[in-house]
Amino acid sequence: MSVAPALKTTPTPGGSTLPESTTQHGNKAHTDGRFGYVPVQTRSDRFKSVNVADFDAVTGREAVWKLSPVAKFTDLTAGELDGAVYPISSEPVDGVTVDWVDRTDARIGTAGTPEERAAANAWSTFEKALAITVSGEEAKEITVTRAELGTGARAAHVIIEAKPFSQATVILQNNGDARLSENVEIILGESSNLTVVSVQEWNSGAVHLTNHFASVGKDARLKHVVVSLGGSIVRVNPSVRLAGSGSDTLLLGLYFADAGQHLEQQVYVFHDAPHSRSRVTYKGALQGQDARTVWIGDVLIGNKAAGTDSYEQNRNLVLSEGTRADSIPNLEIETGDIVGAGHASATGRFDDEQLFYLQSRGITEEEARRLVVRGFLTEVIQQIGSPALETRLQDAIEAELLSSDSLPAAVTPAVEAR
Asked: Region Disordered: what ranges (predicted)?
């Protein structure tokens, strides 16, 4: 018969004894729950894979999906996608090539990797990638339009490459019907200057899930603009890695949610090189029952990013009852040697003083409210840098405002801001 060894004991102040543990308290995982589970500690540590089978089924409880209506697009996260080539239109521009390339193209996978199942599903399925390649130091602009994607579940992959010292504006114009999951890779060579504008003016029933991955080289500058106006569910998530010393990025967002629309943006900026700079400004308006917007802004200043200068902000203007705006800025800093870093978030209704000022000069209340909304959103539009597109977007905003019979004098927004 074996005999268990006697436990060491420790005297207590009252004279009794307690068993003495042979390991440090708290150094052993609990027996209940997920044994040994350690949560992700920083934004860059999230699991990544290009294989959809590596991700669990989407439940809506995941950090990346908890604010999204996941039940409305299970065909994009769990179903089979059509990865075939689709119709596009663009006018020829000197210094820009637009081609379809094979999955074996060396550029694929160099800007980023999916962190969620919808993106991985698209990555696993696309047959050819649409490659837009920019060269030459002269400024140029090209618009690539997609308007015939149909209503079937579809996958896509886009590459936008700016060669060293090149400069251009690339506009991705989205119209018509769609049920689309896609990945867009943006690659900036040394000292290049690239503006990428993604315009979502889908039909009312469209669903669009897209992840933009950007890698910005030494002394290069990326201006990335997201404009979401049309569609039922539109989720555009830009991730920018400032990979080269002296790299710079300006991320702008403009959105206008009507009744029943869900417009979402999850922005991530990773300062991974010294003396890099980033500015993030997203502004949106909401009107109509169940209009919903989501903005999550993550900035990570890595331990190699000495001399970083970073600031992000989100502003939402609520125009009617029954809307909801979620605004969540996050900032992680892993080095103390920075120029500056900060974030801000605000959601509210009209500024009564602005309205009073305009009405005191003979402007009707309804027109005053429209002027305030246009002024609120114009800050973003005027920074795009394409006069023709800026004018067209101003007209689109005016049409959105006129689609409502009136703008109420006071609202109480449902707000989630942290």
From this structure: 1-35
Name the token pair of 41.
Answer: 């500690």
Task: For residue range 391-402, list pLDDT tens digits in order.
Answer: 999 999 988 888
Residues 6+ apart with CB under 8 A from 9: 17, 18, 19, 20
Q: Does the predicted model carry a pTM greater than 0.85? A: yes
pLDDT, one tens digit per residue, over 140-160 is 999 999 999 999 999 999 999
Task: Give the length of the chain.
Answer: 418
Neighbours of 88 (CB within 10 A): 16
Summarised one tens digit per residue, pLDDT across range 38-64 is 677 789 999 999 999 999 999 999 999
Which DSSP letter does residue 366 get?
Answer: H
Nearest CA to 197 out of 160, 230, 235 is that of 160
Q: Are residues 277 and 236 in contact, defined by beta-carbon separation less than 8 angstroms?
A: no
Domain range list for the chain:
48-349, 351-401
Q: What is the mean pLDDT of the chain?
A: 89
Residue 303 CA to residue 336 CA, distance in Å, equals: 9
| pLDDT above 70 as % of the chain | 87
Q: What are the residues whose beta carbons fall under 8 Å from the beta carbon of 294, sequence distance 6 or more?
A: 67, 68, 262, 263, 264, 265, 266, 325, 326
Longest dimension (CA), the chain: 101
Interatomic CA distance for residues 396 and 404, integer angstroms? 13
DSSP 3-state of 56: coil
**Rounded Cα–Cα distance for residues 277 and 248 (Å):** 5
Rg from Cα positions in the chain: 25
What are the two backbone dihedrals, phi and then psi, of residue 295, each rounded to the nearest 5 degrees? -130, 125
- Retrieve residue 328's tokens: 């969540």
SS3 368: helix
Q: Can you name the residues that pair with 167 across neighbouring β-strands?
A: 193
